Amino acid sequence: MSIYRLQADAEKFMSFYIDNDELSYKMGEDVMLHINPVPEKYNKIWNTPDGCFYKPDDFKDAENIPDITIWAYYLILNEKAYNKLYKVLEPQGEFLSVNCEGYSYYIYNPLVIADEMNAVNTEKTSKNVVDGVYLGLNSIEFKEEKLTGILLFKTAYDFNPIFCTEKFKDIVKQNNLDGLLFKENLEGIV
């Protein structure tokens, strides 16, 4: 089994966005969904916000709307992706509705943390901290045998990236869902 870091394919596909004011208006000012990287359930307070897709300034060729992409610390799924992935993802996270240009989309909030399953090899994992400022991961390694049956997960070492197993990648590819890149460089260092 292989592990991948998920990344939005921003060169080919438009990016997703929910305005901060929209989130505050719908959820209240205490909900910082877009800046809270720690997995936390939101379904009990959820009021469907409006979002949109846009072309990133750096990628003017990004013309198409993806089936599945990343926004902040979450996945964004269109109806096709939602229908294909709901049964396998729902036990490991939560789906939250979002309106987007007249269509129903879904935010998927992955709630599995590898550290809680003892699935991070702490001897081969380290953070890049300079002058007390966290800059990312120097290295990370997972104990794949501890992730049996898991599709998507995060780690307390850096809650920003969403990681996935080979099984999730296969399901996405088998269902022809576009918009994600599966990076073998887990640290995200170029």
What does this structure look like?
By secondary structure, this protein is α+β, with helices and mostly antiparallel strands. It has one domain. 15% of the residues lie in helices and 35% in strands. The protein has 3 helices and 12 strands, in the order ββαβββαββββββαβ. It has helices at 20-27, 79-89, 166-174; strands at residues 3-8, 15-17, 50-54, 68-71, 74-77, 93-100, 103-110, 126-130, 133-139, 152-155, 158-165, 180-183. The strands form 3 sheets. The protein has a 6-stranded mixed sheet with strand order 2-3-6-7-5-4. It is globular and about 50 Å long. The model has no long low-confidence stretch (mean pLDDT 89).
What descriptive keywords fit this protein?
single chain; 190 residues; alpha+beta; six-stranded mixed beta sheet; 3 helices; 12 strands; 35% strand
The low-pLDDT segments are none
The largest β sheet comes out as: 6 strands, mixed
Question: Order of helices and strands, N to C?
Answer: EEHEEEHEEEEEEHE
Q: Number of DSSP strands?
A: 12
Major sheet strand order: 2-3-6-7-5-4
Whole-number tally of structural domains: 1
How widely separated are the two ends?
Answer: 23 Å
Mean pLDDT: 89
Radius of gyration: 16 Å
Q: Helical content, roughly? A: 10-25%
Question: Number of helical runs?
Answer: 3
Overall shape: it is: globular
Global structural class: alpha+beta
Beta content: 25-35%
